[in-house]
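*Target chain*
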Amino acid sequence: MPQRTLRFHIRQDGYVEESVEGTIGESCETLTKSLEDALGQVQTRVPTSEAFLASQKQVQSLPAELI
């Protein structure tokens, strides 16, 4: 599992800036929803390049051989 990092910067005027690293797609919004609800109203969202990546699933097929 990749490492996920949440960073918070609390400005002097009381605004909280949050950044998320290590998530792909919209999973960062799911990850931070409860925190954002507790902090208050979200003013703006700026997606990173990771937000536009699609999650990749690895599938491996093994041939079924009967003896």
Summary: The helical segments are 27-39. The mean pLDDT is 77. The two ends are 38 Å apart (CA to CA). Residues 25 and 51 are 4 Å apart (CA to CA).
